[in-house]
Amino acid sequence: MQKFFELIPSGTTLNFVKNARKFIFLSIVLTILSIGALIYNGAVRGSVLNFGIDFQGGSSVRLALKEGAKTDVQGIRDQLAKLGYEGASALTVPDAANEVLIRVKDVTIIDPEQSARCEAAARGYTRAKLGSYSYPTGSSKIFLKFESAPIYGELEHLLSDAGCVGKVDKGTGKEGEFPVEVSLIGVGARIAEQLDEAFGAGTVDHIVSSETVGAKVGNQLKQDGIKSLLYAIGFIFLYVMLRFDLRFAPGGIVALAHDAFLVIGAFALTYKEFNLQTIAALLTVIGYSINDTIVVFDRIRERVALNRDQPIEEITNVALNETLSRTILTTGTTLAVVLSIWLLGSGAIKDFAFALLIGLLVGTYSSLFIACPIFLYINKRFYAGEGHLISVEGAERPGTGTLLGSASNEEIDETSGRPVGDLRVEARGESGQIHADAEVVAEPAQPTATAAASDETDDEPEPEQKSRRRRRRPRADE
Question: Whose CB has fewer CB within 10 Å in the chain, the N or C terminal residue?
């Protein structure tokens, strides 16, 4: 006989349902702690979360310092504070030598007069004719469309002379168009000049990149991020409701909201940067968590069909134990990858992995201890005694929809689950005959006279016949 490795031995009966209240209490404590961290950040640090420039608005400048520069990151931080850059930060770039990433709340702003000069310079470019020019308010980019391909270096020099200092790259557009994007580096150029003045000419070798997001754009991105989370949760609610049953859906949605909020709480406690990558991580966590929950719900539904006389609490507990091995294996292998990225990664990818790490842990936890208890509560509170999903209390009371092993003494038909007497009445017409198209139900066989006499002397009662076919008992003389 072949023996396979089992992470969780078959027959394991951990009582998840019985201990559900303890874990729900733990979730309430974690939720309160997250709310407290958000309130503390808002009162002390001025912002409930450490929003990145994607949501808060500002500029991100990556500078390459000259080798042997007479400054370090701390010196740059002190200088930015002296120059009046509120909320400025400076970090080293791990995988790039002598590079520093500076973030400030200032944005690149071009007044209408300066924008008009830049447009005139672009239209005066003789090598390619300009088709359209646009500079959205609060943006750090100028969008151009030419009728033929320009030379980016020439165009960049021409715009810089007009006051639009930036990097010219190929844009995105339809086939046959020649779009150009100009990423303005006004804030980056100003910071580079100020650092050269403070630490000596040539301290900044060159500007690697510069990005600006206006306050209006940041607020719009923040609203869009919240909408994306709400839409995802709402459509998942509809899917679970249609795929399974309305009583399953609230448990799945409460679990998803629980997961998303605890990830946000982790960012509030650690005050890590919360940006668009974090929103992407939250959506990933929601998808992973509902997948795990669906597996458990599907096993519960299968068990209900196989064990119609068993209380739903016991069925749920069996389903959780049966899927426990799968849950641990899938979550464990995913966590191994995410943990490696978090430990070895840097920058934005590290924060993204951190969000996934917390989300995978709380997502697995909620599938076991949040979604199922909520489902059991909804079933007991609003659907008590209906269908096959009966509770322990319902199984102990007569007439609560028990299919097998009913507290009532009346015989129950195994196929339909209804009392045999009721089926017999429906199957017979006024003439007392069974309809031709009616389902034939089990009817106790009438004993013969000899058998009846024999039954009177038996000490033990004959067991009930559960077969759907009539059986003739042998007579005593056979």
Answer: N
* Structural contact between residues 367 and 296, judged by C-beta atoms closer than 8 angstroms: yes
Tell me, yes or no, whether 290 lies in a domain: yes
Give the Cα separation of 35 and 29 in Å (integer): 10
205 in a domain, yes or no?
Answer: no
DSSP designation for 268: H
Q: Checking DSSP bridges between strand 141-146 and strand 166-170, what pairing results, if any?
A: unpaired
Structurally, the chain folds into a number of domains equal to: 1
85 within domain boundaries: no
Spatial separation of the C-alpha atoms in residues 476 and 450, rounded to whole Å: 7
Per-residue pLDDT tens over the stretch 364-386: 998 888 988 888 888 888 776 55
Q: N- to C-terminal Cα distance for the chain?
A: 47
Share of the chain above pLDDT 90, in %: 10
What's the pLDDT score for residue 32?
94
Contacts of residue 36, Cβ cutoff 8 Å, sequence gap at least 6: none
The whole domain housing 335 covers 20-45+217-382
| 65: in domain | no
Which helix (H) or strand (E) segment holds residue 293: the answer is helix 276-306
CATH at residue 263: 1.20.1640.10
Residue 65 forms beta bridges with which residues? Answer: 204
Largest CA distance in the chain: 122
10-49 b/e with 16+ CB inside 10 Å = b? eeeeeebbeebeebbeebeebeeebeebbeebeeeeeebb
Partners of 100 in the beta sheet?
A: 63, 92
Q: DSSP 3-state assignment of 100?
A: strand
Whether 352 contacts 281, CB under 8 Å: yes
